[in-house]
């Protein structure tokens, strides 16, 4: 029988160096780059909270102190805003400090996503948990994480989010081999390959940055040798779990996601994300879209 322990904890790996956004990320964590007026990582925490996960563990590293500061109280700033009567901005900065119980642990060495997840073992204990990558933002109207937790509760094992991409793009991602559907949006994952060549890819369904993992993953990660890039890959551990019996915490299922995903780890996609989020804002959208249409028309003439 599947373990139906509730999922209450989220792990957010945030120890990466952010080299694709240098020099901006030389002193500023990539997770703190703004999407309009809110850092990307706050959207991720809000997603976890909306899925019912009130305990969030950040896996951080050197030069990530500003993440902790962002989710802490800023009493002097609060008092200044209160003195000005700026209640709207006061509420906005208090919101981030009150979102969830947020904890921190340092990864120490950048040994890969699998190693970062293993750093959460002591905090998570013997419970299923979610992993949310800060580079991937999911549209607020798409309840992907909630659905993944439902699938875990029903079937046990681990659950990954899968998204279909053109065949010539699979080499950038972890790629899943899938069998027949368990439900309309749920499949069995039989194998996973990290960044395969187009010729060797088992499908064009890629793993995106949302996972709900059985605690057995910690034992598997402890025995997983470095893989692609000399790093401990979470994909390799999931591949092992996919072949393990369900009574031992094995089995991997995929939720087929067809909603809105924003890859803020890529410069072009980051710019697209900022534009789309700004266009959808009630306070900015109309004026911004008007300017954008004029800008595009001028560039096209």
UniProtKB/TrEMBL annotation:
<keyword id="KW-0548">Nucleotidyltransferase</keyword>
<dbReference type="GO" id="GO:0006011">
    <property type="term" value="P:UDP-alpha-D-glucose metabolic process"/>
</dbReference>
<keyword id="KW-0808">Transferase</keyword>
<dbReference type="InterPro" id="IPR029044">
    <property type="entry name" value="Nucleotide-diphossugar_trans"/>
</dbReference>
<feature type="domain" description="Nucleotidyl transferase">
    <location>
        <begin position="9"/>
        <end position="244"/>
    </location>
</feature>
<comment type="similarity">
    <text>Belongs to the UDPGP type 2 family.</text>
</comment>
<protein>
    <recommendedName>
        <fullName>UTP--glucose-1-phosphate uridylyltransferase</fullName>
        <ecNumber>2.7.7.9</ecNumber>
    </recommendedName>
</protein>
<dbReference type="InterPro" id="IPR005771">
    <property type="entry name" value="GalU_uridylyltTrfase_bac/arc"/>
</dbReference>
<dbReference type="GO" id="GO:0003983">
    <property type="term" value="F:UTP:glucose-1-phosphate uridylyltransferase activity"/>
</dbReference>
<dbReference type="Pfam" id="PF00483">
    <property type="entry name" value="NTP_transferase"/>
</dbReference>
<dbReference type="InterPro" id="IPR005835">
    <property type="entry name" value="NTP_transferase_dom"/>
</dbReference>
